[in-house]
Amino acid sequence: MFKIRNLSAVVLFGFLLFFVSACSSSDSSTDSNANSEAESANGEANTSEPKYGGTFTMVTPADPDTLDPHRQSSIYTHQMAGFVYNKLVTYETGPDVDFTDYNVVPDLAEDWEISEDGTVYTFYLREAYWHDKEPVNGRQVNAEDVVATMERIIELPGHQAALLSEVESIEAADDTTVVFTLKQPFAPFLNFMANHFMWILPKEAIDGEVDLTTDAIGTGPFVLEKWDDNVQATYSRNPNFFEEGKPYLDELIYKVVPDQGARIAAFRTEQAEVIGGISPEELDTLVKSNPDITVREVLFPTQEQVYVNMEREPFNDLRVRKAISMAIDRQSMVDSIYGGGEVSGPVNPSLGSWALPLEEREALLPYDPEGAKELLAEAGFPNGFDTTLIVTDGYGEQLVRVAQWITEDLRNVGINAEMEVVEYATYFSERWPKVDYDIGVGYQTYFQEPDEWLRTQMHSQGARNWYNTKDSDLDEMLDDQRMILDENERLEKVHEIQRYILENVLNPIPVSTYYVMTPHQQYVKNYEPHASYGHIHMKNVWLDKE
Amino acid sequence: MGEYIVRRLIYGVLVLFIMVTFVFVVMRAVPGDVVTLQLADSGATEEQIQALETELGLDKSMIAQLGDWLTGAFQGDLGNSLWSGLPVTEIIGDRLPVTLQLSLMSIVLAILIGIPVGVISAVKHNTFIDHLLRITSVGGLSIPNFWLGLILLTGFALVFNWIPPLGYQSFIENPVVNVQQMILPAICLAITLSASIVRMTRSAVLEVLHSDFIRTIRSKGAKERVVIYKHALRNSLVSVITLIGLQVGYLLGGTVVLESIFSLPGLGSLIFETVSARDYPVVQASVLIFGAMFLLVNLFVDVMYGWVDPRIRNS
């Protein structure tokens, strides 16, 4: 058995990094400021003592239908869940942690052990208390809560059940110890436990004493005071939060503002402290009127993809898929439509080191229209062919522009694709999952684990293999990497699989991952978001104003 | 008159029935279903999908579902949302007052602007003022209200560093905040409506002013103000009221976009959200309410005819 003394190691490491960063300037590759003055002000503020108090307002395009985090996979539900709930383990966030670093750190479990054969995970719970609301009334969190939550997750239909598919049994060894026994070694397990579906609920709520659709009682940094459906959710500071001294904000308000123009106007007039993903044009005008804002540039947690139906000709021919890939001028496309980004890969670069290095992605996914024409000729299509390409406008106008760009690129090599814009519900419940298309352009969901990016999409049994992709060698490699418990060894294997995919499978075809610009007000400090769901960084945020 | 209203109400219920049945069938005939939407990315098993279908009552035949829904609707039970599980009556109850208030404010604003301007334009016809007012009203008709909404919002933010406070509050909770939130979208909706009222009032008043009875009244020595307001305007109102009744349909359509621009949780934005989520019961109920509003307004318009024109009342 080996044991990780996580808490102390992380705290020590955190301190070291804090001092290092206090001396040097902050990470300038991901952090860019609207002007240099703001940058220096920001750098100084990082070294000063956090201030308590204040109200932080966020604006969101839509409210979830339910607050129940196990019944709903919607991003809106899970972003809000993170204020209130905790997981057993979570991802590290903070000034020294990159947006795409997936470091698993303690959350409700202060420590854990993994048996040598990798089949038994023992989690030791910390002393933590539920929010002081009926019927839980601030009692201590115990192992029964965790067991009941996990049983609920497995019982309910949905993606989250698949995350626990390798679990054989979950038991409470004592009040503060939970033992997970797996059917076989399963490398993604710990990462899956940090997944945003794994929010721990009190047993009373699972027994039906709390209406989880409209209320939420957790252990998190903020307590849900009131939720007016489609208007706003109001949260107050949790005075009993287990991370001593946190959070800093008195109040957090999550407001529904469906229109992008209205969200920008709200940010402009300081009615919102932060605003999510805005376009380069919008940023330009915003900086003109509000030069003091701080702008953060991060990788979008997913990618645009071109995917083909492998059961239809000619897409079952690897040469045709390669020709499609080589026809696309990825860099120019992402620069002109999104204002910046990079060539993507089978694992999205937002997963940090799990993705192939950028140089390798660029080498394996080249832009080469002449080569594409040659490949098409080899495949028996010297004059190209006609096809139909589907896309939906449900994700916004930019993806449609991507599809238009790709259609043009394909035409340049002789593939005449007629674009069909499909309404979102039809797209997401009929055309895409039921593989009713020739070729399509879309976004993938925000997967949090290389296993999801690879196996879920490309294994012949994958839950989201909506492409008819079948490759028995790939299946075997994908099953194998799940058994490799040594992280470095698994990383190697995951990279190898990605190279194999790009050379031999190539469906879905990764296009690019764009940079998201998220401005926040200059007085907002320690705003260091993470690529996972749930705004887990909000416990660290404070406001530098009177 | 009473018998007439009852007859109209019965027709109204029939129209609503046909409309709702149509929406019911169309919503289920378009591709995309709510169960797959909820479970598509989950890798759910066939049993889990069927279990959810049974839970939501979608495994029955369409006729049976329609029957269930209509039986419920006649008893005031509009079913539950297929996503949140909340009763539809509760959801609509929260949203309806917002749209009602917005529509009412816009109609009142539009009338307050439209009728006086229309009368002035008619009285001063072919003068500079008339031309100016007519050009302005053509402008008002041509501006799309969502564009005006965005311009107002961005303009206020840039020029005054002010926008209506976010987070809707009802008039009872906080009248000051509520009016601040409602006034801009109400103006946007009222501009188009008032422009058509101006044009209709102007031509109707002009026509009446040239009729024989006005000449008679004038020759009796009545004051010009009495001629215009008591006789000419009153006799023009029938066509203006008809116009307002018909325009309410466009107005309700306009709320869909403006509610979303101004973050108002009304019925318009609800329809928009629930159609794409395929939340059938909520869509049906919202359409029912919108239809009922339109029918009631037009019934009210018909009753108003009797009030402004005794000849109609007596016939």
UniProtKB/TrEMBL annotation, chain A:
InterPro entries: Peptide/Ni-bd, SBP_5, SBP_5_dom. Pfam families: SBP_bac_5. Residues 1-22 form the signal peptide. Residues 103-462 form the Solute-binding protein family domain. Residues 27-49 have a biased composition (Low complexity). Residues 27-54 are annotated as: Disordered. Belongs to the bacterial solute-binding protein 5 family. This is ABC transporter substrate-binding protein. It comes from Oceanobacillus luteolus.
Automatic annotation (TrEMBL), chain B:
Its main location: membrane. Residues 96-301 form the ABC transmembrane type-1 domain. Keywords: Cell membrane, Ion transport, Membrane, Nickel, Nickel transport, Transmembrane, Transmembrane helix, Transport. Pfam families: BPD_transp_1, BPD_transp_1_N. It is found in: Cell membrane. The keyword Chloroplast does not apply. The complex is composed of two ATP-binding proteins (NikD and NikE), two transmembrane proteins (NikB and NikC) and a solute-binding protein (NikA). This is Nickel import system permease protein NikB. It comes from Oceanobacillus luteolus.
